[in-house]
Amino acid sequence: MKIGASLKTKAGPDKNVDEFFFLYTKPGGTKIGSVKESTVIGIYERTESYLLTDYAYVKLATPLTYNSVRYQYAYIRQEVVYEYLANSATYYVIPGPNSVNVRSTATSASSKNILLVLKPNALIGTTDGTTSNGFTLFSLASGGMGWVSRNYITSKVPAGALPTPDGTGPEPEPSVGTTLENTVGTGLLGTLKWVGIGLVAVIVGLVIAKLYQRHAPKN
């Protein structure tokens, strides 16, 4: 599995029954929760083994609490998950005056779960449509996963969409200078510059010589 990949639980053998897969504090350790089948659970970090069984260490998309302890990470048997490449759509923050919070959990009850803040028109990332409590789960363009309120997202590219470092968003129009350099080449531009300077020097030299000849004393 690739570090940073989204993981999803597999569908159980019985298609008519919702099955659950346990989450652990460590490989073969205490069970601290469970996840339904066919559910995006989080981001893959690494693999560890215990008694010939591989466990995936996962940064949970939705942290859980067990015995008053909050867990952002947990282990799950690797055989029940797979790297998830969603048939996903790309979304942006809607235009307007307000920025939007990206959260680690699907709730706005606390500011402690804010991962980052995105400006209007900014690229959020991709989603397969997973929602909870009015929030949509995203694979973020900046990396990782996060929840964003459905009231502030749009799949339509805003007219003022902000460019992104990886090129997934609209790019600004290049300046005239940049276009010229890309078309002609910086090396050729430098050569033309020095040729022009040389021609000017020659012309100035000829003018000075002409003036000297005109005013030179005649013997």
What is the fold's blueprint, element by element?
Layout: E1 6-9, E2 20-24, E3 31-36, E4 40-50, E5 53-66, E6 69-77, E7 81-83, E8 89-93, E9 100-103, E10 114-118, E11 123-127, E12 131-132, E13 135-140, E14 145-149, E15 153-154, H1 176-184, H2 186-215
Antiparallel strand pairs: 1-4, 1-7, 2-3, 4-5, 5-6, 8-11, 8-15, 9-10, 11-13, 12-13, 13-14
Q: Could you describe the 3D structure shown?
A:
The chain has three domains: 6-83, no CATH class; 89-154, Roll (SH3 type barrels), CATH 2.30.30; 176-215. The protein is 18% helix and 39% strand. The protein is built from two helices and 15 strands. It has helices at residues 176-184, 186-215, and strands spanning 6-9, 20-24, 31-36, 40-50, 53-66, 69-77, 81-83, 89-93, 100-103, 114-118, 123-127, 131-132, 135-140, 145-149, 153-154. Strands 8, 11, 12, 13, 14 and 15 form a six-stranded antiparallel β-sheet that branches. Strands 6-5-4-1-7 form a five-stranded antiparallel β-sheet, with no helix packed on it. The radius of gyration is 31 Å and the shape is elongated. Mean pLDDT is 79; it is low at 165-186. The chain crosses the membrane at residues 194-212. This is SH3 domain-containing protein. Keywords: Membrane, Transmembrane, Transmembrane helix.
